[in-house]
Amino acid sequence: MDRRFLLAVGLMVAVLVVPPLFMKRPAPKRPVAADTLAARGPVPEAPANAGVAAPAAAAPAVPVLAAAARTDDTVTLGRRDAAYRFSARGAALEQATFPRLRNYRPGERGMVQLVRSDDRMLAHRLVVGADTVRFDSVPFAIGRLGDTLRMTGRSGALTESIAVSEVPGRPYLLDIRGELSGLDGRGALLILGLGNGFANVEADSLDNYRHYGVAVRRTTPDNHYFRSVDSGVTQALDGPFDWVAVKSKYFIGALLSPDSTQPQLGGAILVGGRRTGRGIAPTLGTSTTMAVGPDGRFHYQLYLGPAMPDALRPLGRDLDRASPYGWIFRPIVMPVAVWITRLFLWMHEHLHLSYGFVLVVFGVMVRLLLWPLNQRAMKSQVAMMAVQPILKDLQTRYKNDQQKLQAEMMKVYKEHHVNPLGGCLPLLLPMPILLALFFVFANTIELRGAPFLWLPDLSLRDPLFVTPVVMGLSMFALSKLSQSGMPPNPQAKTMTYVMPVMMTVLFVNFASGLNLYYAVSNLVSLPQQYLINKARLAEISRRQVSGGGKG
């Protein structure tokens, strides 16, 4: 999460007199050697090892390709939304392309290709006893039978056969079944590689690298989500896991156990990339382990594609929660972000509005919904103004008895029907929406590359800085107007000038869509605030005529 956004939130919360939030930083994780992965992983010969679930029902046998089969360089398994190309060297995935998604990296054109040119995914290594067999470098006989890729490779006395097929009705999901011959009734440990991060296909590579991370899901004893982008550090995670995923800003690659009730991924190792001058890790090597029983069979699935809720949610594995919506604010932000995302998609599809106009309509709609609360807040402010002389007298009389002072103040509030917090609610309610929108723009691929007027991409900063400047100016005008008719307050006057400047500086590099929403919300609030000021003056006059009686 961007620290500048946290700072902005902290400033706004402080202005609203909300108690500050404190968060302890997690203790640094102890670096571990890369070769500890095998030691932590489960070997079926010792089924009592901790942290390893029993394998699911054995997968069907995989027919071995005939020895005389021609070994091609690559074979592609394709569909309308994606194409996956496997290499004869190690039967690894060397290319994943998505024809419907555009590559926005400067100087490049065409469709998204996620696998880096110097990397591969699904490379297999096998640990048998004290030996490690490098199937990732073995030449495989590779061919296609119908909609299934079949690959066979041999290393010494061991033969590995793999079948890769698409899952009907599940875009971006591959089903992978394998069989190892030559184990002679022994168990083994399969090490699966998820590569060293995705190829950069975003216009803002630095922002994309900030979102690199790993997420895992444990089903016992409870669900647990973990995300790490530590640079230059090797970490080992103990399972069992239902899935292990790597993600960038908009894309995700996840290895899944075939049965979520029997998690089979025993452990994971994360290798942080080399730290750059800006403290960003451009690579993140990830591997996980899977137990292979004495029958030599194994089965897992791979989701590789855009992190679209409509594609992830039907899997029923909480994979759509791999993105870090909300960070420490997750319990509040996650439901709001999901609701906003669904509303945006619905408005775009059914009202045929561009996402820019969706943001404009949404900003207006939020302010209209808050109008009744703003009216009530105004009346609460006037009521507080009316009882201020009484409160000041109580503070003088009971300055040495805080308990008595609090009791008398509550009595005054009750008699005059005053809610001391009534004026804060309309200011606090937009905060979860603003927080949620930050994460919506950071994780919603539908908004990726969406243009609006002069803005080339609503998920990136405004290249002309128009929206943050308008946001700051409208914030100043709104704050200035809200002080009209109120008693002089030096602190409020100072914040009227300071906060717009600080917020403009903090938001200048945020997504232009976020600034657009904030600016529209402020502009719509200006006529509302004018009407509230008139109503406030009328309410004050009414109370003065009635002798300042009860509200």
Question: The CATH topology of the largest domain is what?
Answer: Beta-galactosidase, Chain A, domain 5
Strand content: 15-25%
Outline: elongated
Number of helices: 12
Strand order, largest beta sheet:
7-8-9-10-18-15-14-12
Structural class: alpha+beta
Query: Rounded to an integer, what's the Rg over CA atoms?
Result: 29 Å
The SSE string, one letter per element, is HHEEEEEEEEEEEHEEEEEEEHHHHHHHHH
Biggest sheet, in brief?
8 strands, antiparallel
Q: Output mean pLDDT.
A: 75
Known CATH architecture of the largest domain: Distorted Sandwich
Number of β-strand runs: 18
> Distance N terminus to C terminus?
45 Å
Q: Stretches where pLDDT falls below 50 for ≥5 residues?
A: 11-71
Kindly give the count of domains: 2
Helical fraction equals: 25-40%
